[in-house]
Structures are given as structure tokens and as C-alpha cells.
TrEMBL record:
It comes from the Bacteria. Keywords: Oxidoreductase. This is Pyridoxamine 5'-phosphate oxidase family protein. It comes from Rugosimonospora acidiphila. InterPro entries: F420H2_bilvrd_red/Heme_oxyg, Pyridox_Oxase_N, Split_barrel_FMN-bd. Pfam families: PNPOx_N (PF01243). Residues 28-153 form the Pyridoxamine 5'-phosphate oxidase N-terminal domain. SUPFAM superfamilies: FMN-binding split barrel (SSF50475). Transmembrane segments: none annotated.
Length: 168
């Protein structure tokens, strides 16, 4: 999907009459530059679970990591569907983006190496690549890495107010 540009559709019912569909390039800028995202998963009993974490956009996917025993990893074992949200907390400015899709483990050493460099360069967070996992500097907290290929992306602008859906 690299280089793929999804079709943008303005949701007129949720947008100012002056609004236009936001170009995908603007959404990519948000996904590539954001440091923090909110990950929403579903627990086995159906209750939601939301947590902040850093994520990296690479190869048309959002990547994040977590310890194998953490709630989000346990949730993804039974239901890989999730949402990653990023943007601003401003009411009148900025772009908010949600990415919906299914999380899949990323274990390929080459991809993990590229991702570890992104984490280091963007956040000064150093990971070594282990056998299909990330290792922190103490090698005591292995992290599983997940990739979410977008099934649906929504972008919300605030001036003028708009909602754009991207079809994949």
C-alpha cells in the first residue's frame, strides 16, 4: 500500500458548509509528526480500555509497542480491532485523526530495526531489536510490536469544522 492515496470523502452532515475534504497529505503530516496517540481496545468482557502511547507511521501503518502482560496486549489477543487517535486538545484549531483497524504483531527484524530508529530519532527512546521483539536498555522489559493497517481513517478540522473519511 506504500504510496497509496485513499479517496477522501467529506461528511457534509458533520461539516461546515464552507469546508472541503482534507487532503490525505495533511493527515499524513499529523500521523508522522504526532508523538502521542490514544489506543482504544476492548477487554474480554466487552469493556473499553484506553491508554496513551507513542506510535510511529511506517509503511502505511501505525506501529506501537507494549509489554506482553499489559492490558492492551491481552485485549488484542482476543480482539485485534482497535482505534488509535491523535491530534490536539484545542477546541478551535488543529486536526484530530482516528485510525481504525486490526492490530497484527510485527516480528520482522528489518522492520523492527527501522522502527527502533524512528523511536530513537523522534522520542530519544532506545530499543534494541531482539528475536521478534523490542528490548529496552536493561533488556528486562521485552515489548511486543504491533502494526495497524488503516481500515478507516477520520480526520476532523476545527476552523472550519469538518469531518473527512478516507476509504481504503
Amino acid at each position: 500500500m506504500t504510496g497509496f492515496e485513499p479517496a477522501a470523502r467529506l461528511a457534509a452532515g458533520f461539516s461546515d458548509p464552507k469546508a472541503q475534504a482534507l487532503p490525505w497529505s495533511d493527515v499524513l503530516t499529523v500521523l508522522e509528526s504526532s508523538e502521542m496517540f490514544w489506543l482504544s481496545t476492548v477487554r474480554r468482557d466487552g469493556r473499553p480500555h484506553v491508554t496513551p502511547l507513542p506510535a510511529m507511521w511506517l509503511d502505511d501503518r501505525l506501529h506501537f509497542c507494549t509489554g506482553a502482560g499489559e492490558q492492551k496486549a491481552r485485549n488484542l489477543e482476543t480482539n485485534p480491532n482497535c482505534v488509535l487517535t491523535t491530534g490536539t486538545n484545542a477546541y478551535r484549531s488543529g486536526i484530530d485523526v482516528t485510525v481504525e483497524g486490526a492490530a497484527e504483531r510485527t516480528t520482522d527484524a528489518e522492520t523492527l530495526g527501522r522502527l527502533s530508529r524512528l523511536w530513537r530519532d523522534k522520542l530519544d527512546w532506545v530499543f534494541e531489536v531482539g528475536d521478534g521483539i523490542f528490548l529496552d536498555d536493561t533488556a528486562t522489559h521485552p515489548a511486543l510490536v504491533f502494526a495497524v493497517a488503516p481500515a478507516k481513517v477520520l480526520a476532523f478540522t476545527k476552523n472550519p469544522y469538518s469531518q473527512t473519511r478516507y476509504v481504503f
